[in-house]
């Protein structure tokens, strides 16, 4: 059974103006998130990502559809049961949401206080978690004395306090610089790996997806327009939106201007060659071209690593008579996509 199942979930808000149309923030979304997944949900601002998180956490009722956690429909629980359910779901936020009047340790203790834990148990658990996130030495500091990345690590410790099986991360690294983002993403990967926590990562940054999500859903205007294994979405994005997101990370296709420049520098016909790790490699492609006896140059692109797996996207210029070039391109073989770049 999936850990989290959304079936045809819709959320409408009342019209902004009287007599206007309702705002459909989430529109018929169905998702299955397996236990232990790091599941990414990506979309531009207004796509409905934060609304979806509030629905999963039962902070708001859905207008239609069902949301099951461990097979239990959270939309139909009593208020008391919903509160209990929520202790099994940790959450971290873009702005960390720490209490500045409390020390780091007492911030981590906060959810345990609310849950009625006794003082000594709370303290023990908070110290243990601060060790886990690498901030044991900051226990008595105040949030304002910490960097953004450290504050988010405190946020993660707090979210884990009650031992949740699910962690929802809503734009958790959007306020951080790239280096600190890596540090926080590494910690989330450790939470997933060592504690087995299912993590749902909401973001507008494809880099974040590439770094930690094993699966991804792309949202646009309240709908999931594409979803799958992260590697598959990166190597074969189907929708324009997914293609645009992929291009923010995998920049190995020349733009129109770059192509004009490249053509002025290199003679011959231009081809793009793409391959995944399903039986192809740069060496095999170049080997086949060399054996075919055509003259070629790699003019753009290279080989990327997505989720530790190889993805090649090369633009080459090939010289020779038309039939020889056609034959050479055919000889590259299966598991490789070859397309001629229109002149
Ligand atoms: N409480 C609300 N009342 C009315 N409309 C809302 C409410 N919350 C969200 N919306 C609308 O629902 C749509 C989706 O918003 P949502 O915040 O879920 O998107 P998002 O993808 O998380 O974007 P962002 O990253 O900008 O928050 C938007 O059009 C937004 O204006």
From TrEMBL:
Matches recorded under Gene3D superfamilies: 3.30.70.260, P-loop containing nucleotide triphosphate hydrolases
Ranges of residues in domain ABC transporter: 4-246
Annotated InterPro entries: AAA+_ATPase, ABC_transporter-like_ATP-bd, ABC_transporter-like_CS, ACT-like_dom_sf, MetN_ABC, MetN_ABC_transporter-like, NIL_domain, P-loop_NTPase
SMART domains: AAA (SM00382), NIL (SM00930)
Keyword Transit peptide (UniProt): no
Tagged with keyword Membrane: yes
Name of the protein in its database record: Methionine ABC transporter ATP-binding protein
